[in-house]
Write a structure and sequence with these properties.
Number of strands: 11
CATH architecture of one domain: 3-Layer(aba) Sandwich
Distance between the termini: 40 Å
Strand content: 15-25%
Structural class: alpha/beta
Shape: globular
Radius of gyration: 21 Å
CATH class of one domain: Alpha Beta
Number of helices: 16
Largest sheet: 5 strands, parallel
CATH superfamily of one domain: HypD, alpha/beta domain 2
Length: about 375
Amino acid sequence: MQRTARDWLDLIRALPFDGTVRIMNVCGGHERSITAAGLRGVLPPQVELIPGPGCPVCICPEEAIYAAIQYGLRDDVIVAAYGDMLRVPVNVPKEEARSLEQARALGADVRPVASPLEVAQIARDHPERRVVFLAAGFETTTAPLAALLQQGVPDNLLLVMAGRLTWPAVAMLLDAEAPGFEGLIAPGHVATVMGSDEWQFVVGKHGLPAAVAGFTPESLLAAIYSVLRQQLEGRRFLDNCYPEVVKPAGNAAARRMLEASFEVGTAPWRGVGDIPASGYFLKGDLARHDVRRHLPDYAAEQRRRAGAMPPGCGCARVVLGKIYPTECKLYGNACTPRTPIGPCMVSDEGACRIWWSAGQRKRAASTA
């Protein structure tokens, strides 16, 4: 018999807790589901769920967004980006365009898209113009781009590569002296593409309980129960609580496309710094679509030094699970979804935006 959310919750409440167990839920989609379902409010107080680094909009390098803005304002190009990216602010004086949305208001040809297919169609419809795509996202959005590149795209389509892999950020946290959590809920969508085996290092190298979860309360609670039970019983294994779509090796076709299209290397995460083996870079002949081969490099190294989070913004610490959104001093004051200061308040996968939209206003205890 398939267990309901109530069944899983009863099982969790029956566990003999001995102190607090902190579990990081990596995925922004998981955080949205957890908050929308009110899971924090019904779990025992000993269970602490910590939002993690799974918001691609939040960690997209500031200099990449800045470059896209400059291409739109200074060069005769069409700039395409996923919808959430249009409102992410960059660090510039108030009199300058702080987002792609503001650049569009100043006359830049900026177009929101939902998929790489739309970008390719824009390029085909406008062969006389260059189309610059801000290619941000994790494995789940980078895989469709890889498939498109393997099919062939117009020569006038250029890319600002900002694709990232998820697991290296978690590996970086676990390699730190104080990771701040004792268990992990691995991202279901990423595992669908890359496979659950990619998260075995959490158990094998670091000895932490881990489970892959889907996005329903039932799947999330099953994963939480598994992590808690592993912790209490002293057993460590990677549990797949999303077997409907997640397989150990993932999606073979998608992984082949990614490998054929991109090289993986050290890459910057906004407010976090460079993380080894975390960035996708165009491979071989596909590098001809790198925008820097055709237009000025507005995302040059000197720009990176100015490209952290805005002053006073705690988004980077939220992403790393060091504080809750409500602990940022800008949260709900200067920074709201209407007037975002940091990227965590922009995306519907950003913890600050999720918490604010759910009515969370009280300050929470620090996670670290």
